[in-house]
Amino acid sequence: xxxxxxxxxxKEMSRRKFVGxxxxxxxxxxxxQGVLASVSSVSVAQTGPAPTPPAGAAAATAAAPATAGQATxxxxxxxxGTGGSAFADQLIASGVKYVFGNSASEDAPFYDALxxxxxxxxxxxxxxxxxxxxxxxYIKASGEPAIVxxxxxxxxxxxxxxxxxxxxxxxxxxVYSYRSDQTxxxxxxxxxxxxxxxxxxxxxxxxxxxxxxxxxIPETVRRAFKASWTPPYGPxxxxxxxxxxxxRIRADIVAQNQIxxxxxxxxxxxxxxxxxxxxxxxxxxxxxxxxxIYKAKAAPKAVKLAELLGMxxxxxxxxxxxxxxPHPLWVGNxxxxxxxSITWPKDADVVINVGNKLQHNSPAPIVPRNKKFxxxxxxxxxxxxxxxxxxxxxxxxGYGLDDLxxxxxxxxxxxxxxxxxxxxxxxxxxxxxxxALRAGIVNSPDWDQAPIIADRLTHEISRFADPxxxxxxxxxxxxxxxxxxNPIGGRELFFYYGAHLGSGVGTAxxxxxxxxxxxxxxxxxxxxxxxxxxxxxxxxxxELPVITVVYNNHAYSGPHSRAISLVPSGRMVETGQxxxxxxxxxxxxxxxIAKGFGVDGEVVHxxxxxxxxxxxxxxxxxxxxxxxxxxxxxxxxxxxxEKPWVPPIQIAGLRxxxx
Amino acid sequence: MSKVRRACFAFALACxxxxxxxxxxSAEQTxxxxxxxxxxxxxxxxxxxxxxxxxxxxxxxxxxxxxxWEAALYRMVGRGGVWTTEEIKVMADYLGTDFGPNAKxxxxxxx
Lengths: 659, 111
Fold this sequence. Notes:
Chain A is α/β, with parallel strands linked by helices. In chain A, 37% of the residues lie in helices and 15% in strands. Mean pLDDT of chain B is 73; it is low at 1-32.
């Protein structure tokens, strides 16, 4: 059939012969005419006789629907060209503006197609990991699709870490790499060939698919974007044999909005009523907020619900700040990630989670079982896995909050209104006191010391940052304070959740690409920084004026202390011989590394220098240039010697030749 | 250090670790702690302020003076600890004594 259609479309066969051949094959005349009509709709789309496309250049032709009656002329275009050019055309139709890629020679037809498609911008990233982080940062900050592409399984392997992050963080990242084998030679252990490479990424992708034919490339691409961008979001991986990129094809390019299910779910009305009743009757309700609020731009609705009930608000670990921290109902993050660790209120009897994935890191449930628990999320997959759920509200949290607010408003009497107002006052008194006490951090006896302590550095940056700055935070052992994050027009936070390190610098570059008119500051530990500095080069090349601040204590301080907690009073502590945590001897100079990538920077040793350095950083970014501060930070905590022990591996004594 | 005393204290250590990865104090430990009568006001404060997040496993080997402990407690303020200056002083004073430079060295774990 396929050969028949190709012949007909190439004008090598008449209509009569086409129908006649089909009927001879056993198809009824009616069915054969139906096939002809369908095929003709594609044919009509061509302007004039279908030419053989020039090698490497697709001939996107006049638009016409390929599917009768449904699509508009702008929605579907029939194209002919190489698989690579059709790939590019479908990316444009799927709304992609930026491609984040590392050099892959077998994608040459795609690169060739870019020459005549300036609307599709290719960003060359020197390493696939930070490149994928940059794409993810762009997607998160812009809400727009992007794709990461790299060479075969070997490039994919470098991007895997950030795919894990995207999976854990539920970022709609689409990743492509070709299979290095030719269609006809697959399975012969060829160059870069690994059997079933798509299976490597299946555990941490939402969708994995292979194009089985070259003309299925566009369909495969749009299906990946559909899967990734249908809530709950997640990464997709697509692949095809490398020769498909050169194969000449005809295919439909379909606008993404023609296949997007636009899934925005309202919660079950009966469950909404039950949730409203529980909240209204609660002695002390508590709201946990999460990233689905940021993604749905629903923070004002979360504020409205909290204010309606006089309900305190907290958050367990997430990527974003999802509630205004300066708000009087904000009681702070859960310090140890579970409700048992909350300072106040200790007596919450009804807990509502709005959009938090609630990552469990210990056997104890984050929400203890003696609380009545309402769980509102679109990520139904993880609901009820650990916590008992009194009221499940599977919903887009924007709609869910709308419906819940309406239901609560119906139940509120003047007496209840008074009660909620009194509770709000009680919460406000507590949070006002909390803020005052937390501000006391400046009384630390180490506050003015050099090397600077991490809390002082954080404090200085919180005073320096613009009111609407975006803080990209990959300094895992550093707790941020003083920023007063506010997703409603204030400072925003882009933290990490997946914990594959090396994402911070790339993420910051991607965020700045998406939000060029907001100050972007990247806070990164030295251990994290060294996993992914190559994105600095992208900052320099693209003139992305990001301020990168490295908390450089020449150590993995988080793993240092966690190891001690796992083996307290052990031989490590007794001898001071820690094998896994000291990054000094020699110390790494991150400012020098930055200069190698074309980014100016400096090393900062004490608080006075820091303030002057921040002024220089601002001057650079105002002029459109990125800047890096390598701030020497004190190692604090048990077991740190002034000059830490280094495992005695000495090769010098083994050398017998001066070579 | 006695088992009972080990179980009595808990607060975080320094830039050490991210609190979300610290194991919460177990109910067993908390109950055991409750049996021990408090002698120093700092001990009572430690019991009430710190166990909610973690056990003592990361810091109980430390032997440092009160100033060092005070700085460590302020690092916990940065992680969400809500304590007054006076409370921090009292806790640091206690730790600087019972976990001070001259205190009994840590009991080593059996291999």
